[in-house]
Specification:
The chain has about 290 residues and is an alpha/beta fold. About 50% of the residues lie in helices and about 10% in strands. The chain has a seven-stranded mixed beta sheet with strand order 3-2-1-4-5-7-6. Strand 1, helix 7 and strand 2 form a beta-alpha-beta unit.
Length: about 290
């Protein structure tokens, strides 16, 4: 059954003459997902040799062909960014509805995250902390659809400076700058993540984006106007950072976007109020309560 299913699926891909057109990215991503599922079932079903080995090799060759077509598109998007042109190609893909016409729920990932991963080509550090420091949380990337919501809800202007506190690999700061033109900073305590983020910014010629290896409790926050936290730390560390942000808010208007458990903590801060009614499934943006 697994053999016939995989053969039929591969035949359908071979007969789809439009599949490798640049505009069929979403269809190729869906095909890659389905192919990996079928190939996994096929390989698990039997010891592969003889005719079965040819089918498996055919499937792997098709996967490589699909991935090559996607890589070519990602490179064209990267070239647009390197030239400093408005990111029309990138927006064309990440502002479209999610793959299979559905959007992931909660903190799950969808089609847009695949696109951004392919474009940014962020290098996952081989030497980062295996265990976070006390009260610091394991890094988890913010889903792209939430970053788009953050940009909209924060109402970025050219005078804004965006600061991602606990920036990890840096894709939030990178996207914020690419899509809005604002100056962006990522503050991250792990040097391996900082190195990867800087490498990406340099490869894309994004001079408006900087990454700083620093503890958020000690970093210079004086230029920031929009801050973001995806629950990078808890307990006394979060309390100390919020106290510093409160002090910053006394000298100028700031907004703070939060996602995950820390959003509930910010909602309890007497000096903050949400700009719009909080939605636990989205980023909440706060401003100082007058």
């Amino acid at each position: 059954m697994a053999t016939q299913d995989l053969q039929n699926f591969l035949g359908g891909l071979e007969n789809d003459s439009a599949l490798f057109h640049p505009k069929q990215l979403r269809k190729r991503l869906d095909a890659l997902e389905d192919l990996d599922i079928r190939l996994g079932d096929f390989c698990a079903a039997r010891y592969i040799n003889g005719p079965d080995a040819r089918i498996a090799n055919h499937a792997r060759a098709m996967r490589a062909k699909l991935e090559a077509a996607n890589t070519a598109l990602y490179e064209s998007i990267r070239s647009e960014i390197v030239r400093g042109a408005p990111p029309h190609l990138l927006l064309q893909w990440i502002q479209a509805p999610a793959g299979r016409e559905q959007t992931a729920s909660g903190l799950g990932y969808d089609y847009r995250d695949e696109v951004v991963t392919g474009v940014l080509q962020l290098r996952e550090p081989s030497e980062s902390r295996l265990h976070p420091l006390p009260e610091m949380v394991f890094y988890q990337p913010t889903p792209v659809r939430h970053i788009l919501h953050l940009i909209t809800a924060s109402a970025f202007s050219q005078g804004d400076v965006f600061v991602d506190l606990g920036s990890g690999l840096g894709h939030v700061a990178l996207l914020a700058s690419m899509l809005t033109g604002v100056r962006s900073f990522g503050i991250e305590v792990d040097p391996a993540y900082v190195a990867s983020a800087r490498e990406c910014a340099q490869s894309l010629h994004l001079s408006q984006v900087s990454f700083i290896r620093e503890d958020a409790r000690a970093a210079d926050l004086s230029s920031g106007t929009v801050f973001y936290l995806y629950s990078p730390f808890t307990g006394s560390v979060l309390a100390d950072v919020l106290a510093r942000l409160e002090q910053q808010s006394k000298s100028r208007p700031i907004r703070i976007g939060a996602l995950g458990p820390c959003a509930c903590i910010l909602a309890r801060e007497s000096w903050l109020k949400p700009i719009a009614p909080p939605d636990p499934k989205q980023i909440t943006v706060f401003q100082r309560r007058l």
